[in-house]
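During the no-cost extension, the postdoctoral fellow (Dr. R.K.) reprocessed legacy sequence entries with the updated structure-token encoder. One reprocessed record is reproduced below for audit purposes.
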Amino acid sequence: MTRQPPSSPTAPLSGEPLALELVNTTYIDGGLRGHRVDALTTTDQLTAWVTEHAGQFSGELPAVLAEQACTPRTHEQFLSLREALRSCLHSVAEDSVPSGDSLAAINEFSRYSASRLEISPGKPVVVTRRWQVDDPWLIALGEVASDACRLLMPDRIGQVRACPAPGCILFFVKSHPRREWCSPVCGNRARVARHARAGRPTSETA
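Re-encoded structure tokens follow.
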């Protein structure tokens, strides 16, 4: 069962690449016996998420986003991207090939991040970035999808991990050789579970 979190939910993990931050907006609250939470069930929650991660978007895009409301259609597109990326990451974690549909969805959304540079007269000349779409929310969607493409590149995907702790569905980048869990909380939970299994009596066969 997926529950809707409060209007301003606290993410259980932060500091990951933008694409993983999007995937990790679904998480388990309460560990192994907890419930699944979706932190992006409304347009307001998506707006809050984009604001929280403003530093990971390019240039003045966050300021422009703050002036334009997120539409239900764009909200659904962000959720579709999240689903496609989670599917790809699960496939990679299982050492299998991601589905063509998931990759196609990421590629389609990534197109919205396309831009070009133009120069105008001046001393020095003025350089301006022009986007191929006008909707800043689509540009933001494209930037998350483009980050996903970079994350899935061979030189990076090998460092992406699915947290192995019981009851956790988060992904993280193994930024340190000794990092095995998404967070210390999950590390502690895994150690407790391991100790519990080790201390459990085994049945003897006559």
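The two ends are 43 Å apart (CA to CA). The CA atoms of residues 74 and 137 lie 7 Å apart. The remaining legacy entries will be reprocessed before the final report is submitted.
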